[in-house]
Amino acid sequence: MKATTSIIASGLFALASAQVASVSPANDITFRINIPQDTASSGNGDIFFSLSAPTDYEWVALGQGSRMSGSNIFVVYTSSDGNNVTLSPRLASDYNQPSFSKAAQVTLLEGSGVSNGRMTANVKCSNCQSWDGGSADFKADSGNWVYAAHTSGGPKNDDSQSASISKHDERDAFSWSYASAKGGDSVNPLLNSAVPSGTAGGGGSATSCVPRPTGAAASNGASSSGGATATKTDDNDGPRHGPPTGWPYGPGASPTASPWDHNKRQNVNYCDDSANAGFTPLGSMGPSGNQRTMLIAHGTLAALAFVIFFPMGAIAIRLASFPGVVWLHAAFQVFAYLVYIAAFGLGVYIANGLNMLDRYHPIIGIVVFVCLFFQPIFGFLHHSLFKKYQTRTFWSYAHLWLGRLVITLGIINGGLGFMLADTMGMGSRSGMIAYSVIAGIIWLVWVAASVFGESRRKKARVDAPPKYTDSPRSETREREIPHPDEGHYAPQR
Fold first, then answer.
1. DSSP for 75-111?
2. In this protein, which residues make up the domain named DOMON (predicted)?
3. CATH topology of 2-281 equal to that of 289-479?
4. Using an 8 Å Cβ cutoff, are 46 and 122 in contact?
């Protein structure tokens, strides 16, 4: 009779567990999800999901989307008394701290709280099929999700849903298979098919699995092949089955309606018995090794172009005064342009691979690249017409002011690039400070040289002997200073 009861209970437990898919994308972090049959059929309705992590983490978060920007995020941290959890639904509009969302229809369910050093939030979401910035298809076989956590700092202990949180030190994007998540109509399937949190390793875990005990618990009845080894305990009942010795989650943490009683137990489905079931990393939350190398090359080349070569060429044409100075200026600017073309190509390739072409940094980089395309044309027209008329024309001012705008914008965009790299885990505070200081000094020197050059030009124009020439701007004749044939708009020798 006991055996029959155990078999029936095992079947009921397996049926309940089949409704919940569980993944552990990192050590000590576990997420579970259930999509009721009605929601899976219509695409609209309630879904249930769970987040679980150690209480010494400041926070843990699960989000819908393939990257942080535009995702529907649910952040969990301990409440002020340390005995419960705070659920904070948030929206991420950019690679900044997500903001609290009042539009989310979420409810904390039974089973949520703090127990045995872990915080758990069982959540019902009634409008997770769409949010401001995205949508989800629960009729599909899988969905894209992101997760993040701040694993240090200790419990947050805050009741505010809009509390400021520290930057994550662990995050990734993944595709979550719904093969084991669909079905049922329970008001709280997460409670009825509870799965102890944890994982044996950093990859995704199997559906409805438990972490393998370690130490003495592992040696008492656990085989290296993954199943629990039967241990003889008395002559009458035969092998005794029960929860693994040293069950790490305490009373009440074992699955409800579990198949074992005081005398029998089934083989345990440990998380390391399956290879990343239901979990497929997307790799879109940060750059790969090759992308990191290209990012470093992109940043270095762009910084050289806008902080060194472009400003130096502009300073030379303002302060130097010798025949052929215009060609020195042109050589600097053409070389800087070629360097930036290489940086631009790398940047577009990386941004496209990371789905970041809509971020501020790449957009400004594209604008700068287009503007620079016209600079050599405007420069040629300016120089040719200046030699002919010995005065500035429309093309002169177009070349001068477009150059000033582009160099300034390029330097600012370099700072934005450092900020974007920081959101991807590649930020270097010391590098950003060094860039800002050097770029700021060079920009000030360049501005000072421009002001000094203009001042010296005006003074030379006033002191110069009269020389009348036809002006292209009117039929009147203007007094202009003489310039050498190879001069640009440098002062007279």
1. EEEE-TTSSSEEEEEEE-SSSSPPEE-SS--EEE-TT
2. 27-150
3. no
4. no
- The side-by-side arrangement of strands in the sheet containing 170-177 is 99-100, 85-91, 72-78, 57-64, 142-153, 170-177, 279-281
- Which CATH number is associated with domain 289-479? 1.20.120.1770
* pLDDT at position 176 over 70: yes
Predicted confidence (pLDDT) per residue in 41-70, tens digit: 988 899 999 999 999 999 999 999 877 777
> Rounded to whole angstroms, what are the CA distances from 29 to 159, 196, 418?
22, 11, 30
pLDDT band at 10 (very low <50, low <70, confident <90, very high): very low
The pLDDT, as a whole number, for residue 487 is 42
| Widest CA span in the chain | 123
DSSP-assigned states of every residue in 383-436: HHHHHHHSS--HHHHHHHHHHHHHHHHHHHHHHHHHHHHHHTT---HHHHHHHH
Q: Which CATH class is domain 2-281?
A: mainly beta
Question: Which amino acid, 202?
Answer: G
| 101-114 pLDDT per residue, tens | 999 999 999 999 99
